[in-house]
Amino acid sequence: MVGQYARSVWYTTVTCLLCAAGCSVELSKVTPEAKQSLATAFPEATITKVENELKWGGTVYEAELTQGAKKMEVKLSHDGGIIKVDTRMAMSDLPKAVAETITGATKGAKLTEIEKVEVLGKLGSGKVTKLAETKVYYKAKYRRLGLPAKIKVAPDGRRL
User: Fold this and answer.
1) Residues in the chain with pLDDT values less than 50
2) Which site in 12, 85, 113, 149 is 20 to 30 Å from 66, CA atoms measured?
């Protein structure tokens, strides 16, 4: 009996730790407020995957969306407040100053992903506070000598 209890506690602990790092969730298990927020903000998008995490004082969903050829990741709270939107981009779609900075920083490396990041809110104590102004930057992931690296760039081309 003690052995079963110990296994049960261990399983519950491991499950909780894994979900804190992100667990896939069926769309039917996502709160109606979060689903409505995604439908309102991205009416043409298709939700392809949803994960939930325990983070920043509450449950955060990370939804992967496709809208035409665009791929996006949206972080939002259980009550539907959008925290951040990451949109995958091609180098040709970047502002010139951003493309130049990324090209210079990744010379000789293999570029693996570029995203436009829009931070719309901040989560604290389980509630999203909308920022007065959306913060925008670009993030590029690359591999140099087989090692992963990334760079963040402001819209004016400055490295962050």
Assistant:
1) 1-18
2) 149
pTM above 0.90, yes or no: no
Cβ neighbours of residue 94 under 8 Å, at least 6 residues apart?
Answer: 102, 114, 138
Q: Is the distance from CB of 158 to CB of 98 less than 8 angstroms?
A: no
Domain boundaries, the chain: 2-153
pLDDT digits (tens, 9 = 90+) for 56-102: 667 899 999 999 999 999 999 989 999 999 999 999 999 999 999 99
Q: What is the CATH number of domain 2-153?
A: 3.10.450
Residue 100 neighbours by CB under 8 Å, 6+ apart: 157
Residue 22: the pLDDT is 63
Residues 84 and 22: their CA atoms lie apart, in Å, by: 16
d(CA 127, CA 16): 21
Is the Cβ–Cβ distance between 125 and 69 less than 8 Å?
no
